[in-house]
Write a structure and sequence with these properties.
Length: about 300
């Protein structure tokens, strides 16, 4: 087996494990209120690349983390992510009808159900994360980390800047700040949560992980902006060309396609450099940086 097969096999195994874990951690569809539970499951299961869980597991592998702890942390981040997508697609935000190749939650169900499904997914994330069988101070640190990354200082803050910036030309610095918050924060949290599930990182290791997560987090949204202009809807599973149609400030609209691609490549290299202190042990994190930048959807 060569190393690419090894990585691909590992990705598959995490994706399969996550599907099972998420299914178990979500409220069952046949328990009341059924429609809400069904919408939560519809938004979360059977779709998505599971990049955040992959980061949790890859970082955890560096610190000999317990697999059950990792599954809870990864499921929690993925639930926050799924909630962010449900709300991001609603008519009051990006008004999208297609997500992960299926009708968006408000289209499949209705707006009120989509709003509540997002709300309940957020709560469910913290229910799952706080159920960690860990030392209480460790669990509390994880809860705080995920809350910071999701809230006004993280994803929600970034989404607010995104909505306030429609039709406005942002400086590169403002755009970077928006991307770091709306997308980078949750990716960074994924890496840090994975590490917290294992042996405590040293200060040097924590700084290295932080630099890695920062580069990968920003790269992820730069590539999302690129794919919006270069890929088609059936590959993406969401409507292509939507950013320009909505007059959103993106890396492509500000830097152009070529420079955006060069930036993504630079960030990929920064992510690799950051991992130097871990040597070969960081194989999965290194491959994930490549996956984030070279993905086609
Ligand atoms: C899309 O995230 C939204 C952004 C934060 C850019 P993903 O590209 O990770 O979406 P899924 O989970 O694979 O559907
Ligand atoms: C959304 O960014 C980031 C979130 C916090 C959900 P986008 O609006 O660019 O994500 P897509 O392109 O709809 O997936
Ligand atoms: Mg959006
Ligand atoms: Mg969107
Ligand atoms: Mg996008």
């Amino acid at each position: 087996m060569n190393s690419t097969q090894n990585f691909d096999g590992w990705v598959k195994s995490v994706q399969v494990a996550m599907e099972d874990a998420l299914s178990a951690f979500l409220p069952q569809a046949d328990i009341a209120p059924e429609r809400l539970h069904q919408a939560m499951r519809y938004a979360t299961l059977d779709g998505g690349k599971r990049v955040r869980p992959l980061l949790v597991f890859a970082a955890g592998a560096l610190f000999d983390a317990n697999v059950l702890a990792l599954a809870r942390a990864a499921a929690a981040v993925e639930m926050i992510h799924a909630y962010s997508l449900v709300h991001d697609d609603m008519p009051c935000m990006d008004d999208d009808v297609l997500r992960r190749g299926k009708p968006t939650v408000h289209v499949q169900y209705d707006e009120a159900t989509a709003l509540l499904a997002g709300d309940a997914l957020q709560s469910q994330a913290f229910i799952v994360l706080s159920g960690q069988d860990n030392a209480p101070d460790r669990t509390l640190a994880m809860v705080r980390l995920l809350a910071d990354a999701s809230g006004a200082a993280g994803m929600c803050g970034g989404q607010a800047i995104d909505l306030a910036s429609v039709g406005i030309s942002l400086s590169l610095q403002q755009l970077e700040q928006m991307h770091r918050l709306k997308t980078g924060a949750l990716l960074r949290a994924s890496v840090m949560l994975g590490a917290l599930c294992g042996k405590f990182p040293s200060e040097t290791e924590e700084a290295a992980l932080d630099a890695y997560a920062d580069a990968v987090g920003l790269a992820f949204q730069v590539v999302d902006d690129i794919l919006d202009t270069t890929a088609d809807s059936s590959t993406l599973g969401k409507t292509a060309g939507k950013d320009a149609a909505d007059n959103k400030p993106t890396y492509v609209s500000i830097l152009g396609l070529e420079q955006s691609m060069a930036l993504a490549e630079q960030l990929r290299q920064n992510a690799h450099s950051a991992l130097a202190p871990f040597g070969d042990r960081a194989y999965f994190l290194r491959e994930l940086a490549d996956l984030v930048v070279r993905r086609e959807k």
